[in-house]
Amino acid sequence: MAVATGHGCRICGGPVAEMLDLGRHPLSDAFPRPTELADEFFYRLALARCADCTMVQLVEEVPRERMFHHDYPYRSSLSAVMRAHFTATGRELLGTELTRPGAFCVELGANDGVMLRTVAKAGVRHLGFEPSAGVAELARRQGVRVSTTFFEEETAAGVLAADGPADVIYAANTVCHLPYLDSVLRGARLLLAPDGVFVFEDPYLGDILAKAAFDQIYDEHFYYFTAHSVRATAARFGLELVDVRRLPVHGGEVRYTLAHTGRRTPSAAVAELLREEQERGVTGAEALRRFAADVARTRQDLVTLLRSLREQGRTVAAYGATAKSATVTNYCGLGPELVAYVCDTTPAKQGRLTPGAHIPVRPPAAFADPYPDYALLFAWNHADEIMAKETGFRAAGGRWIHYVPTVCVR
Ligand code: DWN
Ligand code: SAH
Ligand code: ZN
């Protein structure tokens, strides 16, 4: 049942109704050593919807320095599919918005340089913002120019003074991470050249609801965008939604393009997605109520399956120690007794325990040594890439457990 939280919308101050409470959760990207379990930070993971601007947002905000710091473990370049996606993105920006001599590209959430290295190699002026200093250092080694400050209005003013206006501000999987979006949009408006564009891509609420992908909900994902909510938000800050494009990555995203109001004619795709959202009821409260019921069913089915496998004496491991999986393990109460370990390529996660659930993280080489009977696919958004390299698992009789869109064994 929707309960008023007493807090207003982070975007417009309008009334928000709480739609889903997933309980107490640890930081999704904080992988403790066995000696650090007493220091874990927990917060309440709950989703609310604004009745006025329709923006779906978290009820509680985790202070940004707790999430994004020197030891932030996520490295964008560890997926071959994502490397190809961002190389293509860099090339596309170079060929469209960055063609004028002296063009300038700013990226928020540059991470290990996965996108900007293409821009840097082309000799085009750029600046990446990446407050997580460990991954920022990896970007520098790729020849990318990086600032380790958090992008917001004040830092945007600093860039404008030092480097001049930006032709492109780009961000992937970052804008939805910024509760202080008002400050970010004031900064973007200030920094953008008169004909510049602010291009950002994030998980799409329409896909999250359609797939019951409740694991997209965690501390770092503060906002859950639609064309409706992005258009309404942009308009409050003198910006206009002029293009949208659906992307297949990370389980379904939308790339939004904003421009200064009145400078570009919105594409037909904008009207089309707005119409589709209306028809499917994606922006309404009812869709979130249905989603809440789907999520409860998935938990029930997954826990029932894992308990029955344990009773049959089958071994179960997991694949991909994703930030998303912190929501799955902690909401469903999965610990090492149900999922023995999780394999992951990220050096900074290996040898640690998963947040809250304390499942040991092992390198991928451990997966075949020996194979478990079942593998729970936490990195379901990278299924094609993982299936292609782990063909030996099924050949040896192993079975994958999926939980998006519903629980199934294949
Ligand atoms: O939004 C965010 C996205 C972009 O990245 C951040 N807030 C945090 C992070 O979320 P995530 O951890 O859920 O992202 P991924 O890309 O689903 O994580 C995949 C995990 O699986 C990584 O830890 C790497 C690992 N992996 C692996 O072990 N073998 C990935 C691939 C492709 C593999 O083959
Ligand atoms: N763009 C990459 C990384 C996404 S993870 C990709 O799509 O794979 C989100 C990143 O945003 C993290 O690396 C985090 O450190 C960074 N970040 C968080 N707050 C930020 C801010 N205010 N400005 C710029 N980057 C920020
Ligand atoms: Zn609002």
Topology:
Layout: E1 3-8, E2 15-26, E3 42-50, E4 56-58, H1 64-67, H2 80-96, E5 104-108, H3 116-121, E6 125-129, H4 133-141, E7 146-147, H5 153-163, E8 166-172, H6 181-191, E9 192-203, H7 205-210, E10 223-224, H8 227-236, E11 239-247, E12 253-260, H9 268-280, H10 285-311, E13 316-319, H11 323-332, E14 342-343, E15 361-362, E16 374-377, H12 383-389, H13 391-395, E17 399-402, E18 408-409
Parallel strand pairs: 5-6, 5-8, 6-7, 8-9, 13-14, 13-16, 14-15, 16-17
Antiparallel strand pairs: 1-2, 2-3, 3-4, 4-10, 9-12, 11-12, 17-18
Helix pairs in contact: 5-6
Structural features, described:
By secondary structure, the chain is of the alpha/beta class. It has a domain at 76-286: Rossmann fold. It is 33% helix and 24% strand. It contains 13 helices and 18 strands. The chain has helices spanning 64-67, 80-96, 116-121, 133-141, 153-163, 181-191, 205-210, 227-236, 268-280, 285-311, 323-332, 383-389, 391-395; strands at 3-8, 15-26, 42-50, 56-58, 104-108, 125-129, 146-147, 166-172, 192-203, 223-224, 239-247, 253-260, 316-319, 342-343, 361-362, 374-377, 399-402, 408-409. The strands form three sheets. The chain has a seven-stranded mixed β-sheet. Strands 15-14-13-16-17-18 form a six-stranded mixed β-sheet. The protein has a five-stranded antiparallel β-sheet with strand order 1-2-3-4-10. Strand 17 and strand 18 form a beta hairpin. Helix 5 (153-163) runs parallel beside helix 6. The chain is globular, with a radius of gyration of 21 Å. The two termini are 35 Å apart. S-adenosyl-L-homocysteine (SAH) is lined by residues 64, 68, 72, 74, 76, 108-109, 111, 129-132, 135, 150-151, 172-174, 177-178.
